[in-house]
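Researcher: I'd like a structural prediction for the single chain below. Treat it as a standalone chain; there are no partners to consider.
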Amino acid sequence: MQRARRFWIASFAVTALIGGFVALTACSNYDEGERCESGNGNNDCVDGLQCTPKSQLTSPFNSSDRCCPVDRSTATSAACAVPTNPIAGEAAPPDDTGPGTDSSSTDATGKETSTEAGTDAAEGG
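Model: Treating it as a single chain, here is the predicted structure.
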């Protein structure tokens, strides 16, 4: 009975020691673009990288925080790349559809009508 108890205590101690070692080494030294936890500060990332919050990242990489360079314009990972918008914070301009829709036609009464701005060319005279 005494031997079984010592074996159990030794097994528990070895398991706890190995588990602690794995936990300490598994949660640090992540490279650029790899996941991190911003709550740990920059401790999860290798030197020269910071743990960037997911709110500052673009899709599909914004599901978790990522290790990125402080100057993200120097990033080599797509997860850390600075998003590029043609107009800062606004949607892209519409495609050029060619010339406007200024077209005239004749209606059933023989009057010339214009579709530009919804006016009738014959109204004025």
